[in-house]
User: What shape does this take?
Amino acid sequence: MQLNTKNQLQENLIFTRPSSLNARPHHFCPGCGHGIVHRLLAELIDEFDIRQNIILVAPVGCGVLAYFYINVDGCEAAHGRVPAVATGLKRVHPDNIVIGYQGDGDLLAIGIAETIHAANRGENITIIFINNALYGMTGGQMAPTSLVGQKTKTSPYGRSVEEAGYPLKACELLATLAAPVFIERTSVHSIKQIIKTKKAIKKGLSNQIKGKGYSFIEVLSMCPTGWGMKPQAAVEWIETHMVPYYALGNLRDR
Amino acid sequence: MSKKIFMRGNEALAEAAIIAGCRYFFGYPITPQNEVPAYFAMRLPQVKGTFLQAESELAAINMVFGASAAGARVMTSSSSPGISLKQEGISYLAGAELPAVIANIMRGGPGLGNIAGAQGDYFQATKGGGHGDYRIIVLAPYSVQELADLTVLAFDLADTYRMVCMILGDGYLGQMSEPLVLPKPSSKHFDKSGWALNGAKGREPHIIRSLRLNPEHALEDLNVKLQKKYQTVAQNEIRYEEYKTDDAEYLLVGFGICSRIIKAAINGLRDKGVKAGLFRPVTLWPYPYQALQNCAKNVKKVLVVEMNAGQMVEDVRLALNGAVPVDFIGRMGGMIPEVEDIIERIESYAA
Assistant: This one.
């Protein structure tokens, strides 16, 4: 609070809820990374002033209620089909900003065909991929991104290479394609990485606004509930376990 | 008089869709419907539309979902195995109340089956197919002319009720060429501004979804609303044709291409002095139960002829509820019932 020239009390808030973020309680668990990414996305929608131009495609998974939290036109997609639904929307409304929001089971298991083909067509859309190394919504099953040795509901003795092969690296897979204009892996486990994540999503949105083509941002994200950890331990697990396998950084920016 | 042209069924279907205002087509190759996407690929760029060959049937139906959510007239087509793959998407379209037109140019099944025309997907088309309590409107054309006419109608029905409308043809109808007069576009206008997605400019956001987590106040409410809508469709949209039924002693029932064989048999029987007639449902859902019941009031026997093991015959039995004996002739695996077999069967009743 400070006094203005008329000696009236006036608020001087330096940190507020982005206007694109709805004032409603979210369903995410304590320590979950989704809320951070939602907020970053809402901040960027405000900064670009594109709230009235967005169509947000929500996946099956923990991200499904994104359309309740971000104050934009929203569309559900069947499990794995976010890029297909986004393609249909974007082809009809090329001037809308179409954002796909997906988890690891959605994007890399049931939906890997749609992921690769939408990227390969160079659809002018922005995909935000939350990699938390398991299926969160269904209670913590092994995902294509679960680490070798990682214990989940469906890999109770740890993911074995003999049974399940190696974790898939989405960014590296997509970087084999010619069409994508932007591919970057970031994380939300530290302030520094949160800032980098915001920059990457910003680039992904600005690419689409400019009509440049397909942008893909993978975000390593905490799932304390699924991992059976306290939130602080989950933050540390990303640093000690995920980052060594899923190297952070940009793979494509043109 | 409009000009008669000569066209293949699959191409007439695609041209009629363009006449109806369809500017988006998403599909995946499968025989015997390949002329549909090929025609769209040629024609849609000429009318500033979008043709996209999807990476799978799953992707195609979900691209349809997106384009429909965006407010566009959109369609996909496929044949039996491909339609099986689209069933999840059809259920999602129903749950989200999105309009779309889907053509199933049926082939022989089950499994990979073959590429000959067949009618083995009647159950799948009319009784569900995907998960949950939902309905789709099913139209069964029997000529290239009717295929084109019903395609224009299908878009209006889909938009009127915000639901999926399926054109249930078969490989023979899709592949054969016949003279037709291209249909006129409908004069109906559909305002989708109350729900379609195009960015929340100066309005509250629209959300297209089928997720309703609360059973009591959300998902059951949605289901009640859907069932009411389906009742309205059943009241308003039943279509059928009767052929020489006025004095008929024997009533034949068939849909789609099969009814042409039946008509030939009826003409053969009439030449021999046997009074036979045809009842042909055009809407397979909603099914014309009452009209069939009325039509069969004074007949001695009903004979259902299908290119399957006996699917629509169950609805005929439901409509007649034991009032008239119902017999059945079915050929499977892409085989076609013979005119002579139908005549022989009817004659055997009198003997």
Summary: Residues 191-209 of chain A form the longest helix (19 residues). Chain A touches chain B through 37 residues (CB under 8 Å). The domain at 28-253 of chain A is CATH 3.40.50.970 (Rossmann fold).
